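#help-structures

NK: newbie question. if I give both the sequence and a SMILES, will the prediction place the ligand too? trying with fe (ii) ion
OV: yes, paste both and it writes out the complex. here, I ran yours:
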Amino acid sequence: MIFRQLFDSVSSTYSYLLASRRGGEALIIDPVLEKVDRYLQLVAELDLKLVKAVDTHIHADHITGLGALRDRTHCITVMGDNAKVDVVSMRVTEGDKLTIEGLALDVLYTPGHTDDSYSFLTRDRVFTGDTLLIRGTGRTDFQNGSARAQYESLFGKLLKLPEDTLVFPAHDYKGDTVSTIGEEKRCNPRLQVKSVDEYVDLMSKLKLANPKMMDVAVPANMRQGLAQDEIARKGWAVTPAQALALVGKPDVALIDLRERAEREKHGVIPASLHAPYPDLQENIRPGGMLHELATATTKRIVFYCAFGERSAMAVQAAQDAGIISACHIHGGLDAWRKANGPLAR
Ligand SMILES: [Fe+2]
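OV: that's the protein plus ligand as structure tokens.
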């Protein structure tokens, strides 16, 4: 596995680049906006293709690099179900697997620091965000934090992992880079409590100042969505209501860009075809499946995904590749469902 721990010294944030092989797909966890150039340079140097960018929670101390990475690489932005951000390309929840080529991360819902905190577990290591830090735990006094929920996330989930599991947090302020579950169980002063009440009491007495960037970072991080309005302005979007009228029409091909697991979990628009987003470039170039479908027939290509973000990027790419009929469902399956559009399983 290719694994890099990257550091932003301004916010003391760790970001993690993962890939299964040189030349393969890569994923980044908790990227920082100011470091995006550095990440992309490293991705190029290691001959990787960045396909997913993930945040463990809405950060209060730095602006996320998710939006910038998406705009520059067309990668898929991922956050947990509970993150109240305007739009991400893909949402995951407890029990889901976050996958790239050759690598799968188990998604753990670990609220407490915030109510949208998730951890990601793969093989011998866990990325704990701000839930479990090295010799510390994330504060629980803002962003719907809860010491009680955090206690459950720690003692009910993370500390139950094998003792030699490596712990990679989202921050460290002392210069530590990695720990293990066993080491934290023994040496983390916050974890030497005998009950949830004792933990709640301990956390209530911390009296920390708010992060310097909080008033800037939180609102900025809640607005990382791709401007789907831009695509709509160009006439390349249909509303869910308009899309409803297109289902079953012989001159329309509805194309689902989501992953197989998302289709199984959330259902599909009846009679739609599956052409996963990672294969898009291959499918839209001359000779590709979607290119041929659009040029050999009079079919209009209507992309959709979970929230409209992947499909908006796909429309732009397809138009650039000469598929002038390409459009997408604004707001994706989420909007479709809200408009009572039918779903097949
Ligand atoms: Fe945080």
